[in-house]
Amino acid sequence: MIRDITIGQFFPGDSFIHKLDARAKIVITVLYIIALFMCKNFFSLSLMLLFSVVCVFISRISPKLIWKSLKTIIFIVLFTSALQIIYNNRGEVLWKPFESREFAVTTGGIYSAVFLAVRIIALILLSSLLTYTTSPTMLTDALERLLSPLKVFGVKVHSLAMMMTIALRFIPTLINEIDIIMSAQKARGAKLDNGSVGERMKAMISVFIPLFVSAFRRAAELAVAMECRCYTDGASRTRLKVMKMGYRDAVAFGLLSLVIAGALFTSYYGFSSMFIFEPVM
Question: Rounded to an integer, what distance in angstroms lies between the CA atom of residue 191 and that of residue 183?
Fold first, then answer.
């Protein structure tokens, strides 16, 4: 299960998505997420999901990697969907197991659960492409450029962008470290996969302590390496690859604008309220 987590990994390629400017990809991702949460029915949500699926296809990222990113959130999807079914009592009652209680499975709860599940899947599909198709260096430069207006308020934009990128970059490293530690502890007889819940939680202590020690050691080594290379926060520096917006970015923004416009139209003007399902949050 640990090996299936692909958050923060970068997979080089020469697809249309890979060649987009890193700043454009960040802005497109943010706009997509905002529009995704403005969808009010399945028609608008299907447009957003179709856009994310097309982006995945264009990026030429292996379907196995996409499945791995989705497989890690199955529990979250099932848990949130179950909450929708339990607390959403609108619509026709399909099943009421306890006559003396308010709990009942209704059509509104089912539709709301499916709606929220599709929304989370669409969110993960497109947002995962940001790290899959963007190198950590370009991601740092893009964040620094986009947050540069905050320098007026005294915010250390470069340090902030560097910390965010380092944290994202070290996620795969820590995941690999967890897998190594768990394998070593299992070889020593630790019961990580069997036994009662209390025994498993107690056994996980033997994983977390070495993990924290390894994380602090890696952080110290990185700090020493940056000091040895005379890294100075805020110092002017040149870049090997200068980011420039091109026609690809204009096409991407244009397509996203059409999809968002269609989604908003179908949400608020295109269909009657009978198709609208508001998730219970």
Answer: 11
